[in-house]
Amino acid sequence: MAQQEAALKIISDERSSRMKLFVGGILVGAATGTVIAFFRGALEYSEDLHPYLAKFLHDYGALGYVAWFAALILAACILSCIVAYEPMSTGSGIPQVKGILLGEMRMRWLSVLLAKVFGGILAIGAGMSLGREGPSVQIGACVGQGISELRNKPRTAMRLYLTAGAGAGLAAAFNAPLAGVIFCLEELTKSFSPLVLMATIAATVTATVVTQFVFGGGPVFHFPELLMLPLGSIWLMIPLGIVVGLLGVGFNKGLFFSLDAYERAPKGVVRPLIPLFVGAGLFFALPQVLGGGNRLVDSLVAHPEPLSFLAILLVVKYAYTMLCFGSGVPGGIFLPMLVLGAVGGSLCAVFAETVGLLTSEYAANFIVFGMAAYFASVVKSPVTGSILVMEMTGSFEHLLALILVSVSAYLTADALHSQPVYDALLLRSLKKNKQISEKLTKHRSVVEFSIAEASRMDGMYVKDFPWPVDSLLVSIQRGETEITPHGVVKLQAGDLIYVLVEDREIDTIRKAVE
Known about the structure:
Elements: H1 2-16, H2 18-48, H3 50-85, H4 94-101, H5 109-125, H6 133-150, H7 155-174, H8 177-188, H9 194-215, H10 237-263, H11 273-285, H12 294-302, H13 307-326, H14 334-354, H15 363-379, H16 382-393, H17 399-415, H18 421-432, H19 434-437, E1 444-450, E2 472-478, E3 481-483, E4 496-502, H20 506-513
Antiparallel strand pairs: 1-4, 2-3, 2-4
Helix pairs in contact: 1-2, 2-5, 2-6, 2-7, 2-9, 3-5, 3-11, 4-18, 5-6, 6-7, 7-8, 7-9, 8-9, 8-16, 10-13, 10-14, 10-15, 10-17, 12-14, 13-14, 14-15, 15-16, 15-17, 16-17
């Protein structure tokens, strides 16, 4: 009874202080936007240094190369130390955020924040084919958790702050506030929650304003105004989605092959050395594949490439991304996967032109559609991908084509039983660290769920649902009416239920309400 009263108090406090939650979201967004602005600025500055590096090597000859390789060795050692000290900073960071929300992981927010920011700058700035966007999500989550802890908020509020910070990180990285909100609902929480929505909107909009103040309000990619694809050519989105969907399935398989290959490497090998040395060779042979790749997308739009060169770009960018991500350094796959989708879309456009199915003025459209399709097949979040690509390119008139190509790619990946990449990475991490996961202290939170149409709970009596052990249904909100839960209350689609539940059991209830 005491637990129920305490849980009801938490819900009452949240409902009565939604303005405070909104203000908290603004605070999280402002702090996240500031950190991401520094992160983005440092990475863009590092890309601008590439011509100076080439000049340095040309001027100093053999001595310059010795100094450069010594710097790469030092960078590899520093990255290895960062990952060894803070394992939660490895890779993208999105699976870790999902693991925290599921109660399977814990995060030392300040330690991870510093490791992710400076490790990401070092790895991506050194030319690794990794993105800033996944790290930005985890950085935002760190900021949200940190602000919650510093303000002594209860665990329920901490989850809201952490989710809002994650969305703000994505929004700030891409100048895409709407995509940040949808990403939290579709990918992180996988449910519609008014509280999450309120906090996340406040955080994403504020973070975007902060980064736009620093970098300007334009989209991340510089596309010209895209022509509307003729209705007679809209059917091309289906084969494009299938082809790019197959490429996305290959992306997921390649990631895990790379991770497994590094796991089998002899102990004592400084893993980051491998991609850094390969990148040194690519610096001269094919510099377009270095870094995240947003400038490569701009180049494809401005200067279309022949089919053979696009195929080389696709293969080398793919292989180098696998090599970099498998090493475990801080850095994401979000941007590289979009770039690979852009290259794949460009390749399909050139082929369609060659066989007379498309004219050259629509080639840029295929680059945009390719990015959305690749995201949908790899992450399996087609709505987030479509909205993200629209915001990133500043093109909002092509929703029909984007949805069609995204669904085609999604269904292709689904037919081949390809798992969502972040869920699969989380599962791999939990299996690898099972002995750690089992020792985690139990934490319980009051979590809000929305019952969907035709879900398992729709039409079920409260007493008939197998609630997890030690969980407690605290309240049912039906429209503006609050219903006291008891066994003979029949749950309905649209109900908001508030459950005091152990964090690791959250997914059990989430699957039942979907």
